[in-house]
Specification:
CATH superfamily of the largest domain: Glutaredoxin
Strand order of the largest sheet: 8-10-9-11-12
Radius of gyration: 26 Å
Shape: elongated
Strand content: 15-25%
Oligomer: single chain
Number of domains: 2
Helix content: 25-40%
Order of helices and strands: HEEEEEEEEEHEHHHHHEEH
Number of helices: 8
CATH class of the largest domain: Alpha Beta
Number of strands: 12
Length: 282
């Protein structure tokens, strides 16, 4: 009896799968020719990068145009890999060696900074882009350190500000719109400084800063509500999301993400980027 029930159940499942089946069309989207057989392959969620694990401890990194971007050395016994959601951390494992390596990948990101407020020489060798939130206490704490870095590299460093208001920060968006509107009157950075110096940020405090700085209030109020300013803010936020920004402050030095926000580590990274740029020009 049990055998009959099992057979009937199997036939039922087979019938369901056949009835639910549909014709499948497939298209070869890309073909990458390799010098050796791949051991494992993984791609980032956005399709920007493809990682191919090769024998001999080689991890080949291809961009979305299927061009070899770089090759990273990993454990020669590695036979499997997995990616983090953002694709900047790679877990490489070896069944034979019974071990795992975690590899940090720092892509050089292209960031559109056109129209963004900046400090320092316009054509500086090193560009530091910061995605920040005026209601973020960590951003406020970091600001003096950025000024210290600019003092250390006055002729070689440009600091670019990009707005990245965090959800849950009630006044981050109004503050960002106000700062950009102040920029229309040449006062973005004084407004920026006053916002970070404000102990309790709210709408009256934001408007009060505009009065304190002597802005044309009619123009200020019009500009901060204008579609152009709102588009600029939205663009900043989307630019950040595209390159993996999820919180603030997040910084990039010549397109490379800053992992250690300590002032000495930051200055060391800026100096390294400066030396690298000079060496490339020689």
């Amino acid at each position: 009896m049990r055998k009959i029930i099992f057979i009937l159940a199997a036939l039922f499942l087979f019938t369901l799968s056949t009835a639910a089946g549909a014709k499948v069309y497939s298209t070869v989207k890309k073909t990458i020719f390799l010098s050796a057989a791949p051991l494992d392959v993984a791609t980032t969620q956005d399709g920007e990068w493809t990682f191919i694990l090769m024998g001999g401890g080689r991890l080949a990194i291809y961009d979305k145009e299927d061009k070899l971007n770089d090759t990273v050395k990993v454990d020669p016994a590695a036979d499997h890999l997995a990616l983090s959601v953002t694709g900047d951390r790679i877990l490489v494992t070896s069944a034979r060696g019974k071990k795992m390596q975690e590899i940090q990948i720092d892509f050089v990101r292209k960031i559109d900074i056109s129209g963004s407020p900046f400090l320092g020489p316009e054509n500086a060798t090193v560009t530091l882009v910061i995605f920040s939130d005026f209601q973020c206490p960590y951003c406020a704490k970091l600001d003096p350190e950025l000024m210290s870095a600019l003092d250390t590299f006055p002729n070689d460093l440009k600091i670019v500000y990009k707005n990245f208001p965090i959800r849950g920060h009630q006044f981050a968006i109004p503050a960002a719109l106000a700062a950009l509107a102040a920029g229309r009157q040449g006062k973005f950075w004084p407004f920026h400084d006053e916002l970070f110096a404000t102990a309790k940020l709210n709408l009256p405090a934001i408007v009060a800063i505009a009065g304190k700085l002597g802005l044309d209030m009619k123009k200020f109020n019009q500009d901060r509500q204008s579609p152009e300013i709102q588009t600029q803010l939205r663009k900043d936020f989307n630019d950040g999301r595209k390159i993996g920004v999820r919180g603030t402050p997040t910084m990039f030095v010549n397109g490379r993400r800053v992992r250690d926000r300590g002032i000495e580590a930051l200055k060391k990274m800026i100096k390294s980027a400066l030396e690298e740029s000079r060496a490339e020009r020689q």
